[in-house]
Amino acid sequence: MRGRLRGWLARFQTLYDRSGFILNLRRVWLLIIIWAILANLAVATDREIFYRLSYLIVLVVAAAFLWALYSIQSFVMEREITSPRAQVGSLAEEKFTATSTGRIPKLWIELSDGGDMPGHLIGRVLSGMAPRVKYAWTLKTLCRLRGRFRLGPMTASSGDPFGLFVFNRTIPNTEKTLVVYPMTVELPVFAPSIGSLRGGEARYQRTHHVTTNVSGTREYAPGDSFNRIHWRSTARYDRLIVKEFELDPSADIWILLDLERGIHAGAWWEQAWYERDLDEIWIQGKVTKLAPNTEEYAVTCAATIAKYFLDKQRAVGLAASNHEHAYAHPDRGERQLTRLLEMLAVVESNGSESFAQLIARETAVMNRSITLVLITPSPEIEWIQYAQDLRRRGFHLIVVLIDASSFGMGVDFGPVIGELAASGILTYTVRQGDDLRVVLGEAGMAY
User: Fold this and answer.
1) Backbone CA torsion sign across 412, 417, 420, 422
2) CA nearest 182: which of 86, 259, 320?
3) CA 246 to chain centroid
4) What are the sequence ranges of the domains in the chain?
5) What is the DSSP annotation of 64-76?
6) pLDDT tens digits for range 145-198
7) Residue pair 274/362 in contact by the 8 Å Cβ criterion
8) How many Å is the maximal CA-CA distance in the chain?
9) Could you read off the pLDDT of 302-352 as tens digits, one per residue?
10) Confidence grade of residue 27 (pLDDT, cut at 50, 70, 90)
């Protein structure tokens, strides 16, 4: 009997240690005062009614404590995120299942989330939970900011019918990670057209992509797609023969993204912004406002242009001047798009390298057939001088200029625009509030 009692005490101690509790001091002190008065009256008068009332108060406090502790411990919750990746302007969907495993009804269970995703309002109160009952619901959150966010862990709170104790418990296995990619805009056309982009020399490198350059044939191997089968050779040799391809001579597309610290401008919105103006969002069309800063506009332009060229089966590479020196070697296909979006989801304007230094470093080993897409909000003239030199050397240049003066930077961008006009470089100028589908989908300004 004594061993069983010790076991129950140890179990109670474990449950107590796992659950932090909050006292309603006002009510507790009131009960303490009432109990003290009744105890004094019982001792002074030796009347049984006062003894019983004092014992009743002790039993009520003990029962309230055990009720609240049991309620929070006999609660199980599961959290499932539909996809660990989303995109700005899309909806992240989560599924929750809460189960009351105890034998005593729960008056209320309050759920809160400890994640850091802006606008992720997951707070919920489950009231009147019957024993052995399962509750399920779905939560959809509009993604309005790119990045890697932590969802959870979730915290459950419950109390007793008298409101004396409130217990909190962190629910295990409810911490998830969500990566939100930057928004991409579908461009009907992006100048220059694909056909007018310069090509290069054939590199005679084998590739697993299907291109227009067939280098030879070989026997079929498990995993080869059926569109690679050469049917004439298959009929001739009476076994499956597939074609091998070489990289085509089209030039690679390099996107150079300026993320130097100090040249980006605009507002980095607070949590309050993500919780208002929801009536202005067209969720069905996946249209949302970009954060009014040059960093978000530049990253969105980079993601949009990369997707456009990758959809056209071009090889796209990326280099950025942030602190981590984000870099991706040119490649094509859906896997390359995912890789670029993963990088652009977390980049920040925290680099110390100027855009001119980035251009000089990255183009030192490039051949002349490369097409460069320069994305920058920099008002400096030095990077334009590097761009002019590259144009004279035979590089094909496209500049996406983020006009930082429209984001509140007190700098005149007239000299930059004038220098680009004199250089004859194809330029797109993006300002705050512009529709990127319209601005980037136009023919651009070939000065």
Assistant:
1) negative
2) 86
3) 36
4) 12-181, 203-246, 249-446
5) HHHHHHHHHHSEE
6) 899 999 989 999 998 888 888 889 999 889 999 999 999 999 988 866 444 455
7) no
8) 115
9) 999 999 999 988 899 999 999 999 999 999 899 999 999 999 999 999 999
10) confident
pTM of the full structure: 0.78
Judge whether 108 and 125 are in contact, CB under 8 Å: yes
Do 417 and 378 meet the contact criterion of CB atoms below 8 Å apart? no
* Interatomic CA distance for residues 97 and 137, integer angstroms: 7
| Closest among 214, 298, 213 to 249, alpha carbons compared | 213
Alpha helix (H) residue ranges in 142-241: 231-237
From the list 314, 299, 349, the residue with the least C-alpha distance to 184 is 299
Helix (H, G, I), strand (E, B) or coil at 120: coil
Q: Which CATH class is domain 12-181?
A: mainly beta
pLDDT category, 16, cuts 50, 70, 90?
very low
Q: Indicate the burial class of 114 (C-beta count within 10 angstroms; 0-12, 13-18, 19 or more).
A: middle
Q: DSSP letter at 239?
A: S
Residue count of the chain, please give it: 447
Is the peptide bond prior to 161 cis by the omega test (within 30 degrees of 0)?
Answer: no
Of 252, 446, 230, nearest in space to 332 by CA = 252
Q: How far is CA 206 from CA 211, 213, 214, 245, 246, in A?
A: 10, 10, 10, 6, 5
Those residues with Cβ within 8 angstroms of residue 94's Cβ, 6 or more apart along the chain or in another chain = 79, 80, 81, 82, 122, 138, 139, 140, 141, 151
CATH class (in words) of the domain with range 249-446: alpha beta
**355: exposed, middle or buried (Cβ count in 10 Å: 0-12, 13-18, 19+):** buried
Percent of the chain that is helix, strand, coil (3-state, to 5): 35, 30, 35
